[in-house]
Amino acid sequence: MRYYLHNAAIWAAMTLPGNALAQDARTHWVTSWYAAPQPAWDSQFVLPMNVPAVLDHQTVREYVRISAGGERIKLVFSNRYGKAPLAIGAASVMMREVTRVVTFEGARQVTIAAGATVTSDTVALSVAPLSQLKVTTYLPRRTAITGFHWGASQRISIAAGNASRTADFSNAARVEGRLFLSAVLVDALPSGRTVVALGDSITDGNGSTPDADRRWPDFLARRLAPHGIAVANAGISGARLLKDGMGERALARFGQDVLGQPGVSDVIVLLGINDIGWPGSPFAPAEPMVTLDELTAGFRRLAAIAHINGIRITVGTLPPFEGALEGTQFAGHYNPQKEALRLRLNDWIRGAGIFDAVVDFDAVLRDPARPQRMRAEFDSGDHLHPGDAGYRKMADAIDIDAIVARVAGAHRDAAPAPSQ
């Protein structure tokens, strides 16, 4: 089997003109779907992983809805947090009744070194915008799960043996989360672009209807699909701006999860509620409160990194969270001191003047009669995460005109000069 290596520098290089991934055979590739990898944790953490600790001679089926369409696709598999090589014995992708075998430099099998990522060969599969795909991966060896994606309001199926070309998974076990598939790339027009949503569980879709693709990046994808613009969801539940949580801190993962996405032009950032809420809660009981200066310094660094790399950055204000996780074993996320910090941070985001745009999620979701609390019709019920209606409202609040105009400008720049 072939071994593949990858690192952050290579991920960042993917977007450079002439790179084999970004452009091959006159094709421009963009990330049409994404699930940000995160490291596994042990039983001492307050939340269970909800996926098996080990897989052995089993097949995983993942269900994804892409954003932008194309005539061909590539699949990206991640072993970013692996502690041992990851062997893939077979892989396939299905859309409706059409199934395609997935290969890697012509071979049906591949081994991905620990810390590495592999991109498949081009798959001849025409996919319309917002198409549903089923990606099936057979793991022929004992495989410890040391990297995965938690939650995502999406379940995967796990079947015994090699079921990589099996259509019916109705008797397979179902678990919530994602495993080794991390991205779907589509070929696109030269003007094609990807918007990355970088965030925490609110971006990952906690509180939305499971398996229904009703996270705010999904609703944004519906708005942008007619313009040929893709959306990659880089939300991780428990993610924080400044410190590692249930994933690496944003300042550490920005290179791979944002800059490493082929075709990226924009990033929309919604982070900070876990930086504020975790200290003193069951998630980080001994951790001191974060300060406003620390948070603003982190956002300044993100803005600088984005702009140095030619990425347009939009930052969202933090939604209200009074009563967050009340009555659960995770109570302690909210208190008046944390609320005061949220308000001060939101005021700073609105007036900082260092971002290309601001989307006021706080104003959109708050209860006018009690602005520290989310409006009931937008609340999933835990007072921290919106439900389907709230996520739709968030997506509708994003001004897409500048995003669309930038892509239209790129299309004009890419067009051939008129003949004389």
From TrEMBL:
Q: Do you know which PANTHER family this protein is assigned to?
A: GDSL-LIKE LIPASE/ACYLHYDROLASE, PUTATIVE (AFU_ORTHOLOGUE AFUA_2G00820)-RELATED, GDSL-LIKE LIPASE_ACYLHYDROLASE, PUTATIVE (AFU_ORTHOLOGUE AFUA_2G00820)-RELATED
The record places domain SGNH hydrolase-type esterase at 197-392
Q: Report keywords, A-Z.
A: Signal
What residue stretch is flagged as signal peptide? Answer: 1-22
Q: Which Gene Ontology molecular function entries are recorded, alphabetically? A: hydrolase activity, acting on ester bonds
Its recorded name reads: Lysophospholipase L1-like esterase
The species this protein belongs to is Massilia aurea
State the Pfam families in the record.
Answer: Lipase_GDSL_2
Q: State whether keyword Signal applies.
A: yes
Q: Which Gene3D superfamilies match?
A: SGNH hydrolase
